[in-house]
């Protein structure tokens, strides 16, 4: 997130949600991945012209690591990954994040805090990428939680769309959202990792926290999640459109024109299991 946005009412929703999740699942640590970017020059327009805001004042209200002081009150170890985020070198940034994740006490809550949330199709500096979510999810162990800050888009079902994107990146995991009444334009999306590769709940985990009830095929397959039949005709899992002809003929144009805001076509197609893709 940009430094100028740090410390507003949305941060109260963020940390209220994270504190709730840490207590709910008895987590030992929280790592906030800040995606920090400088906001440019910090100036005042005065009768003497532009004057720089005093560094002491600016830093007082833009201290990313200040939230680590909550550790004692919340009884959870809080760390902030506050290195500057360079959107042109995401791989290097992610590698640094993964090193910090490995150093945190287990079980962990990893919180991604980009400016606006998960990439909606076109990846920009203000987004966390689906690939970043996928790699972090793969590095968590059973019982641990991945959470993401999500800002509202212009779509009325922005939360549902964002949940679908995160579920796809997290290999079909059950994703939920937390909102606050003081900032209704944001949500904290979260998923808790199950004990098995397909997301099924294992000993000590509530079955409701995972997508293990999906026995229709692959937990990541969009068609399996909607329990669509394996036999033809093929049916769009988003709108129910039935495709005529040879299987999925026309799906690429259909998806790109109607559902690209849900997830990119390539990610949808790659999510399909062999029974539904054939």
Detailed description of the structure:
It is a single chain. This protein has two domains: 3-209, Rossmann fold, CATH 3.40.50; 222-277, no CATH class. It is 31% helix and 16% strand. It contains ten helices and ten strands. The protein has helices spanning 9-24, 55-60, 71-74, 90-103, 130-139, 158-169, 222-225, 251-258, 265-271, 274-277; strands at residues 29-33, 43-46, 49-52, 77-81, 108-112, 117-118, 127-128, 145-151, 176-178, 186-192. The strands form three sheets. A six-stranded mixed sheet has the order 4-1-5-8-10-9, with helices on both faces. The protein has a two-stranded antiparallel ribbon with strand order 2-3. A two-stranded parallel sheet has the order 6-7. Helix 5 crosses helix 6 (158-169). The longest helix has 16 residues, at 9-24. It starts with 8 loop residues before the first helix and ends with a helix.
C-alpha geometry: globular
The CATH topology of the largest domain is given as Rossmann fold
Broad CATH class of the largest domain: Alpha Beta
Q: Strand pairing plus helix content: what structural class?
A: alpha/beta
Largest sheet, in brief, is:
6 strands, mixed
Q: Into which percent range does the helicity of residues fall? A: 25-40%
In total, how many domains does the architecture comprise? Answer: 2
SSE run: HEEEHHEHEEEHEHEEHHHH
Number of H/I helices:
10
How far is it from the N-terminal to the C-terminal residue, by CA?
42 Å
According to DSSP, the number of beta strands is: 10
Catalogue the unreliable spans.
Answer: 1-5, 196-216
Percent of residues in β-strands: 15-25%
How does CATH name the architecture of the largest domain?
A: 3-Layer(aba) Sandwich
CA radius of gyration: 21 Å
